[in-house]
């Protein structure tokens, strides 16, 4: 079936390597004997992603992408292996979508004439108020 990234982009299941490993940290007897954590590996260079997606992912400055162009995700939030598998796949999808999202171009704007006029008038009013605080002549 594959992992759906967008309307026209899908990653086949055979390009994603999922390995069950033992989770780290506290957990008692359960964590010591069951392999519930998931280690996901995805090779960007060997994938069937469009070239644009590959370039954006490789240019990404993320700790999840190695220098060889392999995405490594470790999911161990849940006690269930299936939930961790879903979490790892969701994180891969999010990573690819974020890498290919365009930033909106910022256009510089200037204040309107009316805004400039109001600002100057308020400065003048403030200056007059401060002038009235001066010494009183008898």
Report on the structure:
The protein is α+β, with helices and mostly antiparallel strands. The protein has a single domain, classed as Double Stranded RNA Binding Domain (2-Layer Sandwich), CATH 3.30.160. The protein is built from four helices and five strands. The strands form two sheets. Strands 3-4-5 form a three-stranded antiparallel beta sheet, covered by helices on one side. It has a two-stranded antiparallel sheet with strand order 1-2. It is elongated and about 95 Å long. The N and C termini lie far apart (94 Å). The mean pLDDT is 83.
Q: Briefly note the CATH topology name.
A: Double Stranded RNA Binding Domain
Strand order of the largest sheet: 3-4-5
Give the low-pLDDT segments.
none
Count of alpha/pi helices = 4
Helical amount? 25-40%
Number of extended strands: 5
Q: Helix/strand/pairing class, anyone?
A: alpha+beta
Radius of gyration of CA atoms, rounded to a whole number: 29 Å
Q: How many domains?
A: 1
Indicate the CATH class: Alpha Beta
Main sheet record: 3 strands, antiparallel
Q: Give the overall shape.
A: elongated
Strand fraction band?
15-25%
- What oligomeric arrangement do these chains adopt? single chain
Terminal CA distance reads 94 Å
Order of helices and strands: EEEHEHEHH
């Amino acid at each position: 079936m594959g992992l759906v990234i967008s309307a026209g982009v899908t990653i086949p299941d055979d390009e994603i390597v999922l390995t069950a490993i033992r989770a780290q940290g506290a957990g008692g007897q359960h964590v010591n004997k069951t392999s519930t954590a998931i280690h996901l590996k995805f090779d960007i260079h060997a994938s069937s992603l469009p070239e644009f997606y590959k370039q954006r992912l490789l240019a990404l400055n993320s700790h999840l992408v190695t220098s060889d162009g392999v995405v490594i995700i470790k999911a161990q939030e849940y006690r269930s292996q299936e939930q961790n598998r879903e979490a790892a796949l969701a994180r891969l999808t999010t990573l690819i979508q974020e890498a290919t999202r365009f930033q909106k171009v910022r256009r510089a704007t200037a204040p309107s004439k009316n805004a400039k006029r109001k600002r100057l008038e308020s400065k003048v009013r403030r200056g007059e108020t401060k002038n009235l605080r001066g010494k009183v002549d008898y």
